[in-house]
Each structure stands twice: as structure tokens, then as C-alpha cells.
Design a protein that fits this description.
homodimer; about 200 residues; alpha/beta; nine-stranded mixed sheet; two-stranded antiparallel ribbon; 12 strands; globular
Chain lengths: ~200, ~200
């Protein structure tokens, strides 16, 4: 009888321009995210019907399946203004912030818990909420960088958009002089987007 | 009778870490270039026997075949100290510099011509030398950025190394606020490296 319990995987899944930006200088995510909006698996969690069910849609769905909790930074939360009444997460979300605040229970299974004790506390709470499912560190860039620098990310899927944005918010920045080796585990391309998946080698 | 002469293609073919660096902070290219050194198609132009003849080797060979001239920046030339008696280019090379200097004829078909009149002059001279073959803008980053900003690059193949370098010389930097749309034309992955090819949309 195997009593070992696998630790939940901590994942990053994000769209980046070929020149390394996940948003423009004013936080704009179009045209980077244009590949998403027509996909059935993007539309469904946003309460929208229809959409394509092609390979890109399957890859997005696969990335969201088995995610039991989400971590994000206060700035990303504020930019989206809490995503309205029915946010697209449908799981517990832990928001890194310096301001204590009561949890928010939204419709459709999304709860926002505001964590003031730092990234390790948020991860511990996300693990407890996720059960045997994975944890998505959803952004923004600064939050992902903090988790990467702390060696807490297990897997990254980077969707490379065919575009040089020129300016904006870099995904990989402020990581310091230490190399982080990766293992490429999958590459799938469509005309719209190239999905590159990596394990972080520890 | 078709008298139209196709313009030679201007290409970038370079290895970049997933976080966007083509060299470390002290210009070090290992471990980024580690995938190259064991390939027969890298070893042969460097005067070395043997090596792997796998898909990575084929892709590298394909990238070098049909290149009739090379353009590079003075800093890259100086860093490599002219590549010794038998440089690995084996075609005419045009070096962007501010200091006029006599051309250098090396062994094995490489000539270095020093161009003080700027990037368009270097390209015109490279076109004349390349005939119906392509032109490689080989680096460094600053030189590639100048040609990209001027709208003079037709195709880019970026070999994404599975590594976050953290610091160093970014390939895509200083490009300004204008988006440059790309068309993804191929993605091929091996465990060592992911080859992404793009057309620059004009």
C-alpha cells in the first residue's frame, strides 16, 4: 500500500510574444491573446457559447483541466477589476497583496482569498485548496518571477505569439545571474501560436 | 521568358535562451550553443571531422546552405578576433564598423570587407556578393536589431535553448513601440533545442 501523496504540480501557462513580452507598455494583452478568443475552451469558462474545438483549443483545455487553485498578483487582480460576478477561474484563487482583506466568494466556484504573508504562504494555502490537482501561477510577470526565483515552479507552458511587440512587460526579467535549466517536453505549433512546454530542472 | 530576378532573402538564424538572451553578461555563448558542437554540420565548416547527422544537424546545414554572404557587427568580429586563419563562413563577410580598413582575405573562401557607410550599404554589397543566394545577418544583437528596425529582415529562425539564462544580451531589445508581425512557418523540436522559423510580415 503506497501512502505517498504526490505534491501538487505548480504550473505557469502564459502567452508571450517572440520578443518576450506578455503585455504591452500599458498592460494591453491584445494582440497577444487574439489566438484565445475564438476557442471553445476559452469561451466556455468565460460564459460564452460556441468556438473552435481544434488542437489549440484542446491544448488550452488540457492546461486548465486539473488546475485546483490559482495564484495571482494584486496588480493583475486590480487590472481585471476582480473579473466581475462570474470570474473565469471556477476554483479558489489566492491573491498576493500587502493589504489584508476579507475573502470574496463569486459565482461559478471562484473565491478570492487575499494573502498578505508572501508567496510561500499563498502556495501552502493553494496546495490545501487544490487537493490532488495542480496549481496555476497565473501572473502577472512579477509574481511568476518571484515563484521562479524561489524554485517553486515545476512546469511552464509558454504560448509563443508570432509577433515582436517591441515594448511592454517582459515575462522573464529580474531573474538574476543564476541559470535555470529546463527540459523541453513538448512543442506543438499551429499557424496562430506555438505551444512550448518545459519542466524546470531542480 | 521571365527576366525578373528574385531579391536575395535576408535571414537571421540564431540561438536564444527561452528568456531571450543570445549571450551571457560577459558575452559567453555556452551553454546556449552546446547543442551545436556535436553536430557534423557545425563541425565541418569549423574544420572538424565527425559529429551527429540527426535532424538538428540537418536543420543547421539547411540554414547554412544557400547563404552567399554574411553581415556582422564589429563587436562580434572583435570578440571572435577574426576567427583565425580559416573562419567558418566560407563566403564573403561584410563587417559594419566606423573604422575604414583594407579587406582581409582568409583561407577557405572567407573574405572580410569592412563597411563604414552603414547597414544599407553593407546589405547592397552583400547582395552583390551573394548572387542568387541568401544573406545571413549573423549578429550581434545590435546589428540584428538595426536590420529588423529598418524592415530589412525577411526570415528568422530562432533556436530556443531550454534554459533561463537570467542575464545577458537580449536578442530583441530597443525595437521601439512598433509591432512587427510574423508568420510562423515551421516549428521542429528535439530534446536539445526547438527550432522556430518565421517570415517577417511586411
Amino acid at each position: 500500500m503506497d501512502l505517498e501523496v504526490a505534491m501538487a504540480e505548480v504550473k505557469v501557462d502564459i502567452t508571450m510574444s517572440l520578443d518576450g513580452f506578455i503585455a504591452g507598455p500599458n498592460d494591453e494583452i491584445d494582440p497577444l491573446h487574439d489566438w484565445l478568443y475564438g476557442l471553445a475552451s476559452w469561451r466556455a469558462p468565460h460564459g460564452l457559447a460556441g468556438g473552435a474545438t481544434d488542437r489549440d483549443a484542446e491544448i488550452l483545455e488540457e492546461a486548465m483541466t486539473n488546475i485546483g487553485a490559482v495564484i495571482l498578483g494584486k496588480r493583475m487582480y486590480a487590472l481585471a477589476d476582480g473579473w466581475g460576478d462570474t470570474p473565469p477561474f471556477h476554483v479558489p484563487v489566492f491573491v498576493l497583496t500587502h493589504q489584508a482583506r476579507e475573502p470574496l466568494v463569486k459565482e461559478g466556484g471562484t473565491t478570492f482569498t487575499f494573502v498578505t504573508e508572501g508567496i510561500e504562504s499563498a502556495l501552502a494555502q493553494a496546495r490545501a485548496a487544490a487537493g490532488d490537482k495542480g496549481i496555476s501561477v497565473a501572473g502577472g510577470a512579477n509574481t511568476i518571477q518571484q515563484y521562479l526565483s524561489a524554485g517553486l515552479i515545476d512546469e511552464m507552458q509558454i504560448h509563443i505569439a508570432p509577433l515582436l511587440l517591441g515594448e511592454g512587460i517582459r515575462l522573464f526579467d529580474h531573474l538574476g545571474p543564476h541559470h535555470i535549466p529546463l527540459e523541453a517536453t513538448r512543442a506543438i505549433a499551429s499557424p496562430r501560436i506555438t505551444h512550448l512546454r518545459y519542466r524546470v530542472v531542480k
